[in-house]
């Protein structure tokens, strides 16, 4: 399938590698969270500020890409790192680079990561020159303020293949543990409207698999259900399973209403719009959805404790025979913890096979998860939108790739 062209006025359409700002878990002590200032010898001329969203990032997970590689900021010994952590809290994370190589006078020496509640607050800080660089999930907010983005360079950057938006379920939830309920949810959502109206045709509707149809890992069509919009099938499934509409037009079974909480990442306009659209579609079909906006820290804590019903999530599935197991099943890496003996047997068979003979078992794993509907795959998103303050920054990318932070240059003050 030919990818749709990206038309975004005044954007430079360069597909460059995604600069990851994620990392592993570590712990912060109360003492470590104490506010610390940078030495006075480091002025604003040496400093860049990167804006991040609390809904998207946990300060403990941030990593930084430098010439020597990518390093997790928090939880490592400063002596072993090419930087010192000079400040961190729930609002700020700061590092001072310890480069031993000769650098230009305008080279970046200090990096602040500043955490915002909403993407509107973050964009306002960018427009006021308080932030030099950030990344946005959707283009709609940028389109709205495009005339005001003087001195800012927006660049669409291609996400890795198989980056899918989906609804994940707590499989122990009294309502959502039912495969039939999860199937009814999947058949009730207008996925085409998400791709066309919310993603603005900058994506592709998912078809029952976490892999894009062009992927070698996409299973045979005849083996999986696409879960295209079909409200009649949704209602039929629920009624056959013993659900009936109550006086308030909400499905109910044995005194249990078909009600659940849908968590989504706080402060991100695109995610709220998508969650609201899902709630509206499901409410029309007799399912009551309560929206819960949470920060990344809150989401992670709830995943760890099992205190969640369903969550709007996005994840990039690697084209690896282990990707499905690690994300959905592996007790060390999965918060879903799907338990199914047929899946386990198929996965063990896969491990015994040579690499060139594994595809049928990989397909089998997808068929099992598809039939059990352990996730509702919505759409594949193609781009993130990176915004740079060109009044200050130069040398932030070259030849189609983002440069490491310690190669960025600061041109002049705002």
* CATH overall fold name of the largest domain: Dipeptide-binding Protein, domain 3
Q: CA-to-CA gap between the ends?
A: 44 Å
Q: Mean pLDDT across all residues, rounded? A: 87
CATH class of the largest domain: Alpha Beta
- Briefly note the structural class of the backbone: alpha+beta
CATH superfamily of the largest domain: Dipeptide-binding Protein, Domain 3
Specify Rg, calculated over alpha carbons.
23 Å
Compute the number of structural domains: 2
The rough form would be described as globular
- Number of helical elements: 10
Order of strands, widest sheet: 4-5-6-1-7-18-8
Spans of at least 5 consecutive residues with low confidence: 1-43
* Level-2 CATH architecture of the largest domain: Roll
The count of strands amounts to 22
Q: Report the biggest beta sheet as strand number plus sense, adding barrel if it closes.
A: 7 strands, mixed
Helix content: 10-25%
Percent of residues in beta strands = 25-35%
